[in-house]
Specification:
Helix content is 46%, strand content 15%. With 175 residues, the chain is α/β, with parallel strands linked by helices. Strand 2, helix 2 and strand 3 form a beta-alpha-beta unit.
């Protein structure tokens, strides 16, 4: 089983992942947190580095392990054009290499105003318009994804447990 949790900063990805780990503990999920890409070698362009990381990630996901990912490839579609000056849509070609069918892609969203209020200074932006744009790009990326089992969960007005219940029901009904 592979569970990919996507969404903007401060939407509740970590909280959902804790709940999913508790519910699916028997599956021994390996947790991976995909974070901002920074060049480790000034000789390698950031786009090349990013493509290598995403290619490696998909190769790893094709193994027999069970994974839960805090962000994966959709963020590249959202953040690469805006902050790294190249299109991130190449991830959908890489995604085609994912041979497993037990993959669940969950996008968490909330109101941009709520997310802006939760900002802790570590987010890329705390401006409502920027966050609204990110959410729309994540939705577009979700729609473009070839992963069959995908769902958007709006966290607006919901508790962490309600969001977790919705995600767990989605996964269990597909297994």
């Amino acid at each position: 089983m592979i569970i990919i949790i996507e969404g903007p900063d401060r939407v509740g990805k970590d909280s959902l992942i804790r709940n999913l780990n508790n519910r699916f503990y028997r599956e021994n999920l390996v947790n991976i947190h995909y974070s901002a890409i920074h060049p480790y070698d000034k000789k390698m362009p950031i786009r090349e580095l990013s493509e290598n990381i995403n290619r490696t990630m998909f190769n790893l996901l094709n193994t027999n392990f069970n994974f839960i990912l805090n962000r994966a490839h959709l963020g590249e579609m959202v953040y690469a054009p805006k902050y790294r000056n190249y299109p991130g849509d190449y991830v959908f070609e890489l995604e085609k290499n994912l041979k497993r069918t037990d993959v669940f892609l969950i996008l968490l969203t909330d109101s941009p105003e709520t997310l802006a209020k939760r900002d802790d200074g570590k987010s890329i932006s705390n401006k409502v318009q920027d966050i609204e744009n990110e959410i729309e790009l994540f939705r577009k990326a979700l729609k473009l994804s070839g992963i069959k089992n995908k769902l958007e969960i709006s966290c607006c007005g919901k508790t962490k447990d309600q969001v977790a219940s919705e995600a767990i029901n989605f996964i269990e009904n597909k297994v």
